Amino acid sequence: MQTCRRPVSSSMVQCCLQSTQPVAAARLPYRVKVSAGKRYAWCACGHSKKQPFCDGSHKSKAPSIPPLRFTPDKDRTVMLCACKQTKGAPYCDGSHFKVIFQDLMKSIKGVFK
Ligand code: FES
C-alpha cells in the first residue's frame, strides 16, 4: 500500500469540502410570513444556519449554489422549501415527499442487510 506524501494546501482541502449539490436543511417546508416589497435571499445550498434564508455559508461550503433572491408582491404566508429539491424555488412544490420516501427506502434496506 502506498501513502501519498504530497503537501496539501489549504485551498485544496477547502475545495474538496465544498458541495456542488444542495443538502436538505429539513424534510418539511418552512411556513414563513413575507412582506410585500421586501427583498429575501432564500438559501439554495442548505448550509445556512438561518434557514430558510441565506447566512452566507454558500461562499465557503457551496460557492456554485448562490441564494435565490425574491421580492413578494404582497404580504402573505408562504411555504419555503427546506429539502432544496423543489422545482419551483423558493417555494415548496411537494418534492420533499420524494426525499422522505428515498430516506425511508435507505433505512429499510439497512434493516435487511
Ligand atoms: S420542502 Fe422542498 S419541496 Fe417541500
Automatic annotation (TrEMBL):
Keywords: 2Fe-2S, Iron, Iron-sulfur, Metal-binding. InterPro entries: CISD (IPR052950), FeS-contain_CDGSH-typ (IPR018967), MitoNEET_CISD (IPR042216). Its cofactor is [2Fe-2S] cluster. The keyword Ubl conjugation does not apply. The keyword Iron applies. Residues 27-64, 65-102 form the Iron-binding zinc finger CDGSH type domain. GO terms for molecular function: 2 iron, 2 sulfur cluster binding; metal ion binding. GO terms for cellular component: mitochondrion. PANTHER family: CDGSH IRON SULFUR DOMAIN PROTEIN HOMOLOG (PTHR46491), CDGSH IRON-SULFUR DOMAIN-CONTAINING PROTEIN 3, MITOCHONDRIAL (PTHR46491:SF3). This is Iron-binding zinc finger CDGSH type domain-containing protein. It comes from Cyclopterus lumpus.
